[in-house]
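Thread: quick sanity check before group meeting

JM: Hey all, I'm pulling together slides for Thursday and realized we never actually wrote out the predicted structure for the chain we discussed last week. Dropping the sequence here so it's in one place. If anyone has concerns about the input, flag it before I start.
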Amino acid sequence: MKIAVIGFVGLIVLLASQLGSLGAADNKLLIAHGAISNNVEPLWIAKEQGMFRKYGIDADLIFIIAGRAMQAMLAGQVPVGFVGGTHVVNANTGGGDFAMILGLENRLDYLFLGKPSIKSAEDLKGKKVGIGTPAGSASLATYVALDHLGLVPRRDNIVLLGIGGVPERMAALRSGSVDATSLSPEIGQQVLGEGYRVLVDLGKENVEFQSSGLVVSRALIKSNPGLVESVAKATVEGVAFIHKPSNKEIVLKSLGRNLRLSKPEQMEKAYQGLVAALPKRPCPSIEGMTAVIKLMAQHGINTKASQLKASEQLDLSFCKKFEDSGFFKSLY
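JM (edit): ok, ran it. Output follows.
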């Protein structure tokens, strides 16, 4: 399967071609995922194993860094996004009307990593820290990690640099452009053998947070609820496929291919982390979205965030339908 990784110009060209094809084939659907991480695996599996096709959807999965993915959704160029709760909040405070219908990652699980020379919180004072997109989950994870270490960027002269996506942040850490950054565990493990240190393992801190989930506009839910339900069902079936032990080898190969992991132990760690964190009933969490809103307001990332109600950033009707109809139960 080809996963597109594109910049701004490429995004415009690709979206134009996709919009043209939508008119010719109603079942063609563009789904953007805002990160390259193991939590995207349910979508990759749903594509590779034919779940989308089962529901009459010709899904085209592309990687667009989350902030731009949400902008494309706001512009009506991308109908379905796999992005974090922070981007839903930003879009809705900016006049959008989006809802997360599935929640595939309901905790912060990032590793906050430092150069070998960074051995304590004190060593980070006056240093450079790479964050992702300004309002993304990785950025908030970095703020939470710094809080955990008792550090305040302004007070402690820590320079926060918006580096972008996971590959860029990892490259910046390796090159010495930054002294620390937050990386997803399956990617962060790649640099642990090179002497980099885990300063905070947020997965072990069990920080409730509505991270990645399936997001659509409420207008699409109203105009084409059948399509939205089909996308959700295919994704949920992808989740169930991952959780079945008999499918482990297929999932391992998929993770290796899509995350570009070459070593068996890396694939195994990515698999184990995914299975441990992926909810079997992947419903968004009101508590997790409440935490998103609180953290965004607290750290000045979005001063309007506190005006929103967490429950209104989610649409739990599909999860309720899947529960009441026995769809969830039928998959296990």
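AS: nice. The first strand starts at residue 4 and ends at 5. The chain has 16 helices and 13 strands.
JM: adding both to the slides.
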